[in-house]
TrEMBL record:
It comes from Salarias fasciatus. Keywords: Membrane, Transmembrane, Transmembrane helix. InterPro entries: C-type_lectin-like/link_sf (IPR016186), Collagenase_NC10/endostatin (IPR010515), CTDL_fold (IPR016187). The keyword Metal-binding does not apply. Gene3D superfamilies: Mannose-Binding Protein A, subunit A (3.10.100.10). Residues 47-212 form the Collagenase NC10/endostatin domain. The chain crosses the membrane at residues 32-52. This is Collagenase NC10/endostatin domain-containing protein.
Amino acid sequence: KKTNNNGKTLKTLPLAYKTKTGSSYGSLRGLALLKFLTPIFIILLQLSLVALNQPHTGRMMGLDMADRMCYEQAKAMGLAPNYRAFMSSNRQDLVHVVYPGFRESLPITNLRGDVMFRNWRSLFNGDGAPINARIPIYSFDGRDVLADPFWPQKSIWHGSTSRGLRLLDKHCETWRADHMSVAGQSSSLTSGLLGQQTRSCSNQYIVLCIETHKNL
């Protein structure tokens, strides 16, 4: 039991979330809620997956700059700037980008709140993280990158195995090269987020950003 400053007991409720199709995705305990704002289940917390506002070659001036672009574009749109690039590099495994306490408790959604994955861990079971083509992936400025011709190539950079681990020779020289002879690991979004296509770093692909945690 928890009490407030007046000594009254607060009731601790699970945070439940359901998709529009009614699929329940578990609960997050430990938050004291006075009441639900509506009589239906809603997504109270989620981690958002969002695209940068422009495509990029493999030359992004390094992973730190890719992370910074995610941070700055989120902040510019009034979002909590808790975003990092959805990529592995020579010093980072994608699977570890999201903070430990948030890897299993929250669904992964698009910017509108449509559920894409049950949780962060579910992306890395080895099946390539297939996506529902009917659920848009939005950029920070609200465009659907799967439909908008501004992103003519519907692939993303990720530099990872299907388990989210780094591929040491397939990250466009730590995301600093756009030479045709240098390779990076990518995924066509028709196959999922972690498909295994090795492509020239000269290609201009979608770059995704993942929200790493919530400021509770």
